[in-house]
């Protein structure tokens, strides 16, 4: 599994002219799964570890006098997460 993470103010996914997902402030995550991930990848310890790391990644700025330090995670600030399948991450 590979993840490409981008911090966004807003993001949306449109398929055939129809919006299928939108978020406000949060993380846009392009997600690629390989053959080794298998059909039950979402029950694997690797998947759980990647999900935990993604939610705990400290890439959001602090508040008040700490606004110049990026020390908050998506969990800390209640950020949205939009996962987008992207098979070319393994190409």
What is the fold's blueprint, element by element?
Blueprint: E1 2-8, E2 11-15, E3 18-23, E4 26-32, H1 45-56, E5 60-61, E6 70-72, H2 74-77, E7 80-85
Parallel strand pairs: 4-7
Antiparallel strand pairs: 1-4, 2-3, 5-6
**Sequence of strands across the biggest β-sheet:** 1-4-7
Structural class: alpha+beta
Instruction: Count helical runs.
Output: 2
Mean pLDDT: 88
- Seen as an oligomer or otherwise, the chain set is single chain
Could you explain the architecture of this structure?
A hairpin with an 8-residue loop joins strand 5 and strand 6. The model has no long low-confidence stretch (mean pLDDT 88). By secondary structure, the protein is α+β, with helices and mostly antiparallel strands. It has two helices and seven strands. The strands form three sheets. The protein has a three-stranded mixed sheet, with no helix packed on it. A two-stranded antiparallel sheet has the order 2-3. The relative contact order is 0.27. The longest helix has 12 residues.
């Amino acid at each position: 599994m590979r993840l490409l993470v981008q911090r966004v103010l807003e993001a949306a996914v449109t398929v055939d002219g129809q919006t299928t997902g939108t978020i406000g402030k949060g993380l846009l995550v392009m997600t690629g799964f390989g053959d080794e991930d298998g059909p039950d990848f979402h029950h694997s310890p690797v998947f759980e570890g990647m999900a935990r790391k993604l939610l705990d990644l400290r890439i959001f700025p602090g508040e008040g006098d700490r606004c110049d330090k990026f020390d908050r995670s998506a969990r800390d600030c209640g950020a949205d997460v939009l996962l987008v399948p992207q098979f070319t991450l393994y190409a």
